[in-house]
């Protein structure tokens, strides 16, 4: 595989896709690789999000759970 070193980011000379370099072993990985093929290091880690960022899911599920509980309670009363 040939690399195009003319710009700041390395690209494959054949297809033009951006290549990535593993932070642990310095191996070359493709643009869609999640793990390094040489050492197994996870290449796609991204930014760590705070815990409160995930609370929106619980806040969205709360009305659904309350509605389900209310519906079950009403079905048992009228049965």
Proportion of residues in helical segments: 25-40%
With strands numbered from the N-terminus, the spatial order across the biggest sheet is 1-2
Q: Which regions are unreliable across 5 or more consecutive residues at pLDDT < 50? A: 1-7
Strand content: 5-15%
What overall geometry do the principal axes of the alpha carbons give?
rod-shaped
Please trace the helix and strand order, writing H or E for each element.
Answer: EEEEH
Largest sheet: 2 strands, antiparallel
C-alpha end-to-end distance: 71 Å
Assembly category: single chain
What is the strand tally? 4
Layout of SSEs?
Layout (H helix, E strand, L loop, with lengths): L2 E2 L6 E2 L7 E2 L6 E2 L25 H23 L2
Antiparallel strand pairs: 1-2, 3-4
Summarize the structure.
The protein has 79 residues and is of the alpha+beta class. It is built from one helix and four strands. A hairpin with a 6-residue loop joins strand 3 (20-21) and strand 4.
Note down, in words, how this protein is organized:
This protein has 79 residues and is of the alpha+beta class. It has one domain. The chain is 29% helix and 10% strand. The chain contains 1 helix and 4 strands. The chain has one helix spanning 55-77; strands at residues 3-4, 11-12, 20-21, 28-29. The protein has a two-stranded antiparallel ribbon. A hairpin with a 6-residue loop joins strand 3 (20-21) and strand 4 (28-29). The termini are far apart. The relative contact order is 0.10.
